[in-house]
Amino acid sequence: MAERKRTILLVDDDRAHRTMLKANLAGDGFAIIEADDGDQVLDIIDEHQIDIILLDMKMARMDGLATLTALKEAGNLVPVIVITAFSSVETAVVAMRRGAFDYVTKPIDTDELEIVIAKALHVEDLKQENKQLKERLHQHFSFTNIIGQSKAMQDMFATLSMVAPSDATVLIGGESGTGKELIAGAIHENSLRKDKPFIKVNCAALHDNLLESELFGHEKGAFTGASEQRKGRFEQAHNGTLFLDEIGDMTLPTQAKILRVLQEGELERLGGSKVIKVDVRLLVASHRDLAAMVKSGDFRQDLFFRLCVIPVVLPPLRDRTSDIPDLSHFFLKRYTEKNKKDIRSIHPLSLNILMQHDWPGNIRELENCMERAVILCHGEQITPAELPPQLQPKTTQTETSLPVSSNGLTLRDMEREMIKNVLAQTNGNKSQTAKKLGIARQTLQNKIKDYGLS
Q1: CA–CA separation, 303 and 250 (whole Å)
Q2: Residues 295, 73: Cα–Cα separation, whole Å
Q3: 327, 147 Cβ separation under 8 angstroms
């Protein structure tokens, strides 16, 4: 499919000048739409996708400044480059204050115009990329996009939906791999600070001296290698949210500095004496028992009480096995797209094995398992053969050569039980059951009849 030409709206009441500009710009690969006065601009941008507006300042019916005002009032964000006489540069400066991107003077240097247009398009592309990135982040971190239909997860979502709009500090607990960072992101995206920075720091990944510099910044010359001033993560997160993961790995001196920021909203960079005010919402997480660390003297009690305004504990995957089918299909879709494979579903026997595993690594382990299965799969369905060895049931051979699990069930028995369990979870809804199992509804009907489950 051919790439769409960038379109320039050329607004100038001098026909000869328009003709000259059109010839040059068309030669550079742009599509050109012409207007002989500013009063035509709003109608044209309603009908056409315009990338740049070249706008003359002096026109008979509506001049450039009036056109810029009309564009601003209409909420239009198309970048505008104004054209003005060299003797009227002051007017161009006024135009830029009203929202114009840049200006060029008559007689126009076409090389200079090309540079200004390229710059405007580049800035616009960056804005669009940033907008799309924010949209993807919002979708990724939305509560509704986090998979969890189990009661434990639904109860947690109900709590977080009330907590998110506040500025309360939230302590997120849970085993490694349960998705604490995802929850922190969802809290930020559902808060009043969602359009401000969301900064993340893994406290366990940095030595204490490096962590202090990372959090609070440093002045030039504060230590060997500090060749320039650097803002810390608290400053970068000003008016937004800072997420400190594995805060239990932080030393007591650094904890004291964190407490100061929480209590007074101020900090000093390493090597500096200037007090810097910050407004930051703090979200923290740890897989360690901070209350027990307080008793052992490894975590400050005053900081613990400051952090534990709203405690949230993510349940381990073994306590929410009803979410495993949905999570597995989510990761199946992600990694089939990433690896460009045509894998349609997960065999019910595979799902049964996944649901029987205790998942010490939680969701992260399940994700790695599904990525491996997708890479190894040669067919259209994930079978038990593609699952990791530690998930495979121990088998012996019976007289009928049917594989038998360590609990005495054949794979046929396991499939029957799997279908029976999922039917119970969906209250007998066959469409939902088929979707969870990753099979066609008719296939499910056949199996229900075959296994006498109707």
Answers
A1: 12
A2: 61
A3: yes
CA 29 to chain centre: 35
Residue 337 has, within 13 A of its CA and on its CB side, a CA count of 6
Residue 220, token pair as written in the block: 């030039």
CB atoms within 10 A of CB 177: 20
Cβ 311 vs Cβ 345: under 8 Å: no
CB atoms under 10 Å from CB of 46, counted, come to 10
Q: Tokens standing for 106?
A: 């008559």
Calpha distance 113→11 (Å, rounded):
15
Please tell me the distance from the alpha carbon of residue 299 to that of residue 296, in angstroms, as a whole number.
8
Asked whether the beta carbons of 375 and 369 are under 8 A apart, the reply is no
pLDDT tens readout for residues 403-429: 444 445 566 777 787 788 888 888 888
Residues in the chain predicted with pLDDT less than 70, given as ranges, are 1-3, 86-87, 130-145, 393-411
pLDDT of residue 393: 62
Pair type for strands 396-397 and 230-231:
unpaired
Query: How many Cβ atoms are within 10 Å of 175's Cβ, its own excluded?
Result: 19
End-to-end CA distance of the chain: 50
The string of DSSP letters for 170-221 reads: EEEE--TTS-HHHHHHHHHHTSTTTTS-EEEEEGGGS-HHHHHHHHHEE-TT
- Dist. CA 17–CA 13, nearest whole Å: 8
This prediction's pTM: 0.60
**Backbone phi and psi for residue 282, each to the nearest 5 degrees, phi listed first:** -105, 130
Nearest Cα neighbor of 254 from 206, 220, 289 is 206
Tell me which amino acid residue 177 is: G
